[in-house]
Design a protein that fits this description.
This protein is mainly alpha-helical. Helix content is 76%, strand content 0%. It contains 8 helices and no strands.
Length: 207
Protein backbone atom coordinates (compact mmCIF):
# COMPACT_ATOMS: atom_id res chain seq x y z
CA UNK A 1 0.00 0.00 0.00
CA UNK A 2 2.82 2.34 0.87
CA UNK A 3 4.48 1.63 -2.48
CA UNK A 4 1.26 2.58 -4.28
CA UNK A 5 1.05 5.83 -2.34
CA UNK A 6 4.68 6.59 -3.12
CA UNK A 7 4.11 5.89 -6.80
CA UNK A 8 1.13 8.24 -6.85
CA UNK A 9 3.12 11.00 -5.16
CA UNK A 10 5.80 10.64 -7.84
CA UNK A 11 3.40 10.38 -10.78
CA UNK A 12 1.40 13.54 -9.94
CA UNK A 13 4.34 15.97 -10.18
CA UNK A 14 5.48 14.21 -13.35
CA UNK A 15 2.05 14.58 -14.93
CA UNK A 16 1.88 18.23 -13.88
CA UNK A 17 5.29 18.90 -15.41
CA UNK A 18 4.26 17.17 -18.61
CA UNK A 19 1.05 19.23 -18.83
CA UNK A 20 2.94 22.46 -18.24
CA UNK A 21 5.56 21.55 -20.80
CA UNK A 22 2.91 20.66 -23.36
CA UNK A 23 1.04 23.90 -22.68
CA UNK A 24 4.22 25.94 -23.07
CA UNK A 25 5.06 24.28 -26.37
CA UNK A 26 1.48 24.75 -27.54
CA UNK A 27 1.44 28.44 -26.71
CA UNK A 28 4.78 28.93 -28.40
CA UNK A 29 3.67 27.05 -31.49
CA UNK A 30 0.45 29.05 -31.87
CA UNK A 31 2.32 32.35 -31.72
CA UNK A 32 1.20 33.42 -28.25
CA UNK A 33 4.72 34.10 -26.98
CA UNK A 34 5.57 36.09 -30.09
CA UNK A 35 2.41 38.17 -29.71
CA UNK A 36 3.28 38.91 -26.09
CA UNK A 37 6.82 39.92 -27.01
CA UNK A 38 5.61 42.23 -29.76
CA UNK A 39 3.00 43.74 -27.47
CA UNK A 40 5.76 44.55 -24.98
CA UNK A 41 7.79 46.15 -27.76
CA UNK A 42 4.85 48.34 -28.72
CA UNK A 43 4.44 49.45 -25.09
CA UNK A 44 8.15 50.20 -24.73
CA UNK A 45 8.30 52.23 -27.94
CA UNK A 46 5.17 54.14 -26.92
CA UNK A 47 6.82 55.05 -23.61
CA UNK A 48 9.72 56.56 -25.54
CA UNK A 49 7.32 58.62 -27.66
CA UNK A 50 5.64 59.97 -24.52
CA UNK A 51 9.01 60.66 -22.87
CA UNK A 52 10.22 62.72 -25.81
CA UNK A 53 6.98 64.71 -26.02
CA UNK A 54 7.25 65.34 -22.28
CA UNK A 55 10.84 66.48 -22.74
CA UNK A 56 9.60 69.02 -25.27
CA UNK A 57 6.78 70.16 -23.00
CA UNK A 58 9.27 70.76 -20.19
CA UNK A 59 11.18 73.20 -22.41
CA UNK A 60 8.13 75.39 -23.09
CA UNK A 61 8.04 77.51 -19.89
CA UNK A 62 11.68 78.54 -20.24
CA UNK A 63 11.26 79.26 -23.94
CA UNK A 64 8.26 81.50 -23.33
CA UNK A 65 10.05 83.24 -20.47
CA UNK A 66 13.14 84.15 -22.50
CA UNK A 67 11.10 85.24 -25.55
CA UNK A 68 8.91 87.47 -23.37
CA UNK A 69 11.98 89.33 -22.18
CA UNK A 70 12.50 90.68 -25.70
CA UNK A 71 9.06 90.40 -27.29
CA UNK A 72 6.45 90.87 -24.59
CA UNK A 73 4.02 92.35 -27.12
CA UNK A 74 3.68 89.03 -28.98
CA UNK A 75 0.66 88.11 -26.87
CA UNK A 76 -1.13 86.23 -29.62
CA UNK A 77 1.77 83.80 -29.97
CA UNK A 78 2.07 83.34 -26.21
CA UNK A 79 -1.65 82.64 -25.95
CA UNK A 80 -1.45 80.06 -28.71
CA UNK A 81 1.43 78.28 -26.99
CA UNK A 82 -0.39 78.33 -23.64
CA UNK A 83 -3.57 76.91 -25.16
CA UNK A 84 -1.65 74.19 -26.99
CA UNK A 85 0.22 73.22 -23.82
CA UNK A 86 -3.05 73.17 -21.87
CA UNK A 87 -4.65 70.88 -24.43
CA UNK A 88 -1.69 68.50 -24.34
CA UNK A 89 -1.82 68.44 -20.54
CA UNK A 90 -5.55 67.69 -20.51
CA UNK A 91 -5.07 64.35 -22.27
CA UNK A 92 -4.51 61.42 -19.94
CA UNK A 93 -1.77 59.30 -21.48
CA UNK A 94 -2.80 55.90 -20.13
CA UNK A 95 -2.06 52.44 -21.60
CA UNK A 96 -5.64 52.40 -22.90
CA UNK A 97 -4.63 55.03 -25.48
CA UNK A 98 -2.78 52.28 -27.36
CA UNK A 99 -6.06 50.48 -28.04
CA UNK A 100 -8.33 53.50 -28.57
CA UNK A 101 -8.18 55.05 -32.06
CA UNK A 102 -10.07 58.18 -30.98
CA UNK A 103 -7.83 58.75 -27.96
CA UNK A 104 -4.68 58.31 -30.04
CA UNK A 105 -6.03 60.72 -32.66
CA UNK A 106 -6.75 63.34 -29.99
CA UNK A 107 -3.25 62.91 -28.61
CA UNK A 108 -1.71 63.26 -32.07
CA UNK A 109 -3.78 66.37 -32.86
CA UNK A 110 -2.82 68.00 -29.56
CA UNK A 111 0.86 67.35 -30.16
CA UNK A 112 0.51 68.66 -33.71
CA UNK A 113 -1.01 71.86 -32.36
CA UNK A 114 1.92 72.13 -29.94
CA UNK A 115 4.39 71.70 -32.80
CA UNK A 116 2.76 74.50 -34.77
CA UNK A 117 2.61 76.85 -31.78
CA UNK A 118 6.27 76.29 -30.95
CA UNK A 119 7.27 76.89 -34.56
CA UNK A 120 5.57 80.28 -34.46
CA UNK A 121 7.11 81.08 -31.09
CA UNK A 122 10.60 80.37 -32.35
CA UNK A 123 9.96 82.34 -35.54
CA UNK A 124 9.44 85.44 -33.39
CA UNK A 125 13.24 85.64 -33.04
CA UNK A 126 13.47 86.81 -36.67
CA UNK A 127 11.86 90.09 -35.67
CA UNK A 128 14.05 90.59 -32.60
CA UNK A 129 17.82 90.42 -33.26
CA UNK A 130 18.66 90.73 -29.55
CA UNK A 131 16.50 87.70 -28.80
CA UNK A 132 18.05 85.75 -31.63
CA UNK A 133 21.55 86.39 -30.26
CA UNK A 134 20.65 85.65 -26.62
CA UNK A 135 22.79 82.74 -25.35
CA UNK A 136 19.97 81.16 -23.34
CA UNK A 137 17.59 81.36 -26.29
CA UNK A 138 20.19 79.73 -28.55
CA UNK A 139 20.70 76.93 -26.01
CA UNK A 140 16.94 76.32 -25.69
CA UNK A 141 16.57 76.41 -29.46
CA UNK A 142 19.25 73.73 -29.82
CA UNK A 143 17.54 71.60 -27.17
CA UNK A 144 14.20 71.94 -28.92
CA UNK A 145 15.65 71.05 -32.31
CA UNK A 146 17.28 67.94 -30.81
CA UNK A 147 14.05 66.97 -29.08
CA UNK A 148 12.03 67.37 -32.28
CA UNK A 149 14.43 64.98 -34.01
CA UNK A 150 14.13 62.47 -31.16
CA UNK A 151 10.33 62.73 -31.32
CA UNK A 152 10.41 61.89 -35.03
CA UNK A 153 12.72 58.94 -34.40
CA UNK A 154 10.58 57.63 -31.52
CA UNK A 155 7.36 58.02 -33.54
CA UNK A 156 8.93 56.17 -36.46
CA UNK A 157 9.99 53.31 -34.22
CA UNK A 158 6.52 53.13 -32.66
CA UNK A 159 4.86 53.06 -36.07
CA UNK A 160 7.10 50.17 -37.13
CA UNK A 161 6.42 48.20 -33.93
CA UNK A 162 2.65 48.62 -34.27
CA UNK A 163 2.75 47.63 -37.94
CA UNK A 164 4.71 44.47 -37.06
CA UNK A 165 2.33 43.61 -34.20
CA UNK A 166 -0.78 44.22 -36.31
CA UNK A 167 0.60 42.02 -39.09
CA UNK A 168 1.10 39.18 -36.61
CA UNK A 169 -2.39 39.67 -35.17
CA UNK A 170 -3.95 39.38 -38.62
CA UNK A 171 -1.86 36.50 -39.99
CA UNK A 172 -2.95 32.88 -39.88
CA UNK A 173 -2.64 30.96 -37.56
CA UNK A 174 -1.67 33.62 -35.00
CA UNK A 175 -4.90 35.49 -35.74
CA UNK A 176 -6.75 32.61 -34.04
CA UNK A 177 -4.56 32.88 -30.95
CA UNK A 178 -4.96 36.65 -30.91
CA UNK A 179 -8.75 36.30 -31.07
CA UNK A 180 -8.81 33.73 -28.25
CA UNK A 181 -6.75 35.97 -25.96
CA UNK A 182 -8.45 39.22 -26.99
CA UNK A 183 -5.34 40.70 -28.63
CA UNK A 184 -6.68 43.05 -31.28
CA UNK A 185 -4.92 45.21 -33.86
CA UNK A 186 -3.77 48.54 -32.43
CA UNK A 187 -4.39 52.02 -33.86
CA UNK A 188 -1.34 53.80 -35.22
CA UNK A 189 -0.13 57.33 -35.81
CA UNK A 190 -1.35 58.82 -39.06
CA UNK A 191 1.63 59.08 -41.39
CA UNK A 192 1.29 62.33 -43.31
CA UNK A 193 4.70 62.02 -44.93
CA UNK A 194 6.57 58.70 -45.05
CA UNK A 195 9.90 60.44 -45.69
CA UNK A 196 9.53 62.50 -42.51
CA UNK A 197 8.87 59.36 -40.50
CA UNK A 198 11.73 57.33 -41.92
CA UNK A 199 14.27 60.16 -41.68
CA UNK A 200 14.50 62.56 -38.77
CA UNK A 201 14.33 66.07 -40.27
CA UNK A 202 16.85 68.84 -39.74
CA UNK A 203 14.56 70.97 -37.62
CA UNK A 204 15.31 74.68 -37.82
CA UNK A 205 13.01 77.23 -36.24
CA UNK A 206 14.70 80.31 -37.59
CA UNK A 207 18.28 81.09 -38.46
Amino acid sequence: MSNLSNNRSIIKPMLLSAVLATSTVGLSGCGYNNLQAQDEQVTASWSEVVNQYQRRDDLVPNLVKVVKQYADQEQEVFTEVAEARSRVGSIQVTPEVLNDPQALERYQEAQGQMTGALSRLMAVSERYPNLKSDALFQDLQAQLEGTENRITTARGRYIEEVQSYNTTVRQFPTNITAKVFGMNAKPNFTVQNEDEISTAPDVDFGE
